[in-house]
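Entry 14. Ran structure prediction on the chain below.
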Amino acid sequence: SSLHKNDSETGGTYDYDIIVIGGGSGGLACAKSCAQNGVKVACFDFVKPTTHGTTWGLGGTCVNVGCIPKKLMHTAALHHEFARDSVDFGWSPSQSTHTWATMVGNIRKYISGLNSSNEDTLRSENVEYINALASFVDPHTVEGTDG
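Output, structure tokens:
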């Protein structure tokens, strides 16, 4: 179904002043900035599931599968290094073990919180978040589908 239509040639109006396609850092910044300046904004964001069924939330590649999870996993590794090195500074650490599932579960919870925060921010800025794959039907119409 059409989510944005302009019949300007016949005197119609836009449903939105601007449509942002993509809910990564750039799209979110653009949508929020425009809304803060009185522009009526919709933000489309959709990730086609992988062959394994993997999907993710609002925030783009960096938040969901790139920079953020990588940095959190790196931080987990640093904690182990710090604990091992602490002996040189007088600490007597107990035997440490690592549970991969616990780390991954906690990282997923953290990222889910970022996704929710991004949605809440768009809502508070009066940006309409549309979880759909956007495509141009014609120069004045954007359509959203579930992929």
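Strands lie at 2-5, 18-21, 41-44, 128-130, 133-138, 141-145. Will compare against last week's run tomorrow.
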